[in-house]
Amino acid sequence: MSFPSIAFVASEHPRANEAMERLIKRYAAVAPERADIIVALGGDGFMLETLHRYMSRNVPIFGMNRGSVGFLMNTFSEDDLIERVTKAEPIGLNPLRMTATDIRGDKHEALAINEVSLLRETRFAAKLTIEIDGIVRMPEMICDGVLVSTPAGSTAYNVSLNGPILPLGAHVLALTPISVFRPRQWRGAILPHEVTVGVKVLSPDERPVSAVADYTEVRDVVQVSICEDRSIVLTLLFDPEHNLEERVIKEQFLL
User: Is residue 120 a part of any domain in this protein?
Assistant: First the structure.
């Protein structure tokens, strides 16, 4: 019986590095460029970094929590790792593609697994126009910003803004305002995942705005386009009893 080849990567946290050293001694490890499965040791932030770093390899990633939050990670254990990764359930994720044009006319592209957010840069509130598939749905929103979240990212920054938690496989995105002043009481929208969200910055010289795709930031944007990139599928592996779908459901009942 053949077993998958495994690579180990770890965050800079001492707990993660110590765990990686022990696992490499215990299991036959290969380089990430040659592995069938990558085991990531750290927290959710490191999982996002790992997904971005090895995106072109299209290799499944099994995370084990050696960080703080660990929503995207499995429980850490050094035992029975081969059996765990072999029995793990895969979850496929499509990232968001952000195309941002800055005040100089330069275009920037980046991918986001959690969310794309637009944020005011100064003490002045941002003034934004929201378009869905080229149709203006909100001519002017005065706010600190706005974000578009994937289902996987809906439990992160999005939920801290009282945005909706989205079940995986629901084929929707969350559009959530950040400290909206006008229109008052607007809580955001749930959109079909096929749409393209366009955001235009009004008065970008006086009210500058930055755009952030996960951890890639573009300053002084004037226009941002956000859509799901279904040509890219990222695969996360989860223990059957703690799969990501179950975690998303449980998150909605936390008090």
Answer: yes
Closest CA to 108 of 211, 254, 192, 205: 211
Q: Which domain holds residue 156?
A: 96-228
Q: How far is CA 39 from the centre of its chain?
A: 18
pTM of this structure: 0.88
Residue 73's CATH number: 3.40.50.10330
- Is residue 77 located within the same domain as residue 126? no
Contact assessment for residue 228 and residue 114, using Cβ atoms and an 8 Å cutoff: no
Instruction: Give 70's Cβ-side CA count (13 Å radius).
Output: 16
Nearest to 133 by CA among 228, 27, 37, 2: 228
Cβ atoms 194, 73 nearer than 8 A: no
Q: Is residue 139 part of a domain?
A: yes
* Structure token pair of residue 211: 């755009």
Cis check for the bond before 95: say yes or no (omega within 30 of 0). Answer: no
Residue 18 sits at φ, ψ, to 5 deg, of -65, -40
Q: Are residues 54 and 174 in the same domain?
A: no
Q: How far apart are the first and last CA of the chain?
A: 46
Please identify every residue annotated as catalytic: 44
Residues 69 and 140 in one domain: no
Q: Which residues fall within 8 angstroms of residue 196, CB to CB, at 6 or more apart?
A: 132, 133, 134, 225, 226, 227
Q: How many domains does the chain have?
A: 2
218 and 108 in a single domain? The answer is yes
Are 137 and 105 in the same domain? yes
- Taking the chain (255 residues) in consecutive chunks of 10 residues, what is each chunk's mean pLDDT? 84 94 92 95 93 92 88 91 93 95 98 97 97 97 97 91 88 96 93 97 97 95 97 93 77 74
| H or E element, residue 225 | strand 221-228
